[in-house]
């Protein structure tokens, strides 16, 4: 095994300045992707990384981010048909000839004889989607529009959104917000102004995620039952390398979590050789990037990242195999999905600095990706346990769990004990691990150096008692 250590380290240290392909922004005149091997100096191959024990090392390097090129397009807008008034509406309607008049148009499209307009060559395709600003002629017509809208809402049985002052998530738990004590439940869905939070549907969304996470989970014993040539150590090396790849290409965290999910689900039913394990990893990351990223890396970049160990056709064939085996069911609840919600629940009581708590929880959750045995815990349980341990590390003197977290995670403190102990072991041994990608990632300033925080070896038993 010592030779394996040396071979792996020597292959990675042979070129410390070009460990991964640097993504170059394409010029406007080029539509095809240049081979990355021509653009950047080659480094030592990463083939058969699963034959080696230590994790790969990628030097810190900067690269130009790739932007999606905007292409001008011609767009024809058909003439607007006359408005048909439903006979069922008894209210007054706007006259067709003067209901609204254009107030301002961003550009001057040329008008054809048939009434359609075609976009000028200099116009951006995005400009064509902008609705022209309009102004109403008089107040009578405005009242007519309001009357029509009211009639439509009545016919469709659409009721306006009403704020729930006393209760929240009343479909699941009836909790009186007026009865406030030290174990109060904070309403984290009260901010309806931010559409990104989906406050109106948040309860339904996470209820669905909890119900569907069991359907998209890999087998917890596939290494012993299915695989013959690979083991859990090789899986850890692959995931450690993929974490470095995601950092180098600045992929969103959801891409990494989905990648590991696809790998484990595929390995749960398909025997694979160690020579193809890295090929499976890059194929799954390419699928996950297409699902999550705005500008996903090209297949040539994934080939180059393995120093062209695999051909483009091999990567595409493996991608097809994975998609067909998973039946194109790419949506899967991951630890990151639940962690986003649970961090908001933890922030509701403001017991720790917000950014530091979030970084610490993300650090603990990513450590769980390296460990094969963590598959025995559901993603929601890992996310809840990561919050518990993160709060305890940042403030060991206070009880990490409370009624708010119990309500939104649907886990009692006692139910977290086993998973928290496993995560605590990973944090305690992270500094001596041969897979340092996560630790080095979260030892940076942008992640608040949370990987350098001391993890206590003992958690008081009373913290797991249900309050």
From TrEMBL:
Region (Disordered): 1-65, 102-130
GO biological process: cell division; mitotic cell cycle phase transition
Location of the Cyclin-like domain: 240-324, 337-425
UniProt superkingdom: Eukaryota
InterPro entries: Cyclin (IPR039361), Cyclin-like_dom (IPR013763), Cyclin-like_sf (IPR036915), Cyclin_A/B-like (IPR046965), Cyclin_C-dom (IPR004367), Cyclin_N (IPR006671), Cyclins_cyclin-box (IPR048258)
PANTHER family: CYCLINS
Protein name, as recorded: CYCA1_1
Organism this protein belongs to: Arabidopsis lyrata subsp. lyrata (Lyre-leaved rock-cress)
